[in-house]
Amino acid sequence: MLLWINGPFGGGKTQTAHEIQRRLPRSVICDPEHAGFGLRRMLPPDLRGDFQDLGAWRQGVVEVLDLALTKHDGVVIAPMTVTDPGYFAETVGRLRELGHDVRHFTLLAERATVLKRLNERGLGHLLQYVAGKNAGLRRESWAVQQLDHCLERLREPEFAEHLWTDHTTVPKTADRIATLAGLRLRSNTEGRLRTRLRQARVGIRHIRFD
Description:
The chain has 210 residues and is of the alpha/beta class. It has ten helices and five strands, in the order E-H-E-H-H-E-H-E-H-H-H-H-E-H-H. The chain has helices at 13-23, 32-41, 55-71, 85-97, 111-120, 124-131, 135-139, 141-154, 170-181, 192-205, and strands spanning 2-6, 28-29, 76-79, 102-108, 162-164. Strands 2-3-1-4-5 form a five-stranded parallel sheet, with helices on both faces. Helix 1 packs across helix 9 and helix 3 (55-71) packs parallel to helix 4. The model is unreliable at 124-132 (pLDDT under 50).
């Protein structure tokens, strides 16, 4: 089974994916963003646009996920924002055509909620202390520019199942996805402090500088 977790940038996809992986034995995260940034870095700086526009990215994601789903004995989790219906068909749709059990979920939240998360993710709290309360948003300028488009497109029925996350936690969102997918996660026994520290580590590991 593939769990494709969609949503706006800053919507909680990566944290939710890691929460599921932590509590679901033999599950693995296969992040399509890694392939995208690798392709992007191959190009001269003035040609580095949205890597999803590269056919090589879309084809490569399908090839790698197809291999993982075929050979790995466990759930595969792919946290990735896709808002273009054509690109969605070429990735999620193509994997379904290949016969894989693909469960797609879109994490949604109000604009103010996502902006708050963008401002705080990674080293956001430290940046706010050093450079002011909106320093995190300045670092996440590309994600902020895409936010309204993402929220509008991802509300469309083709991007269901929709899960609103404004008033819930990452562990509870993971529980909800597991229930809808017919999976059973290990009980969440972490305390609040340990959860926040672990999520901070995940955020720092996923900071992008290009």
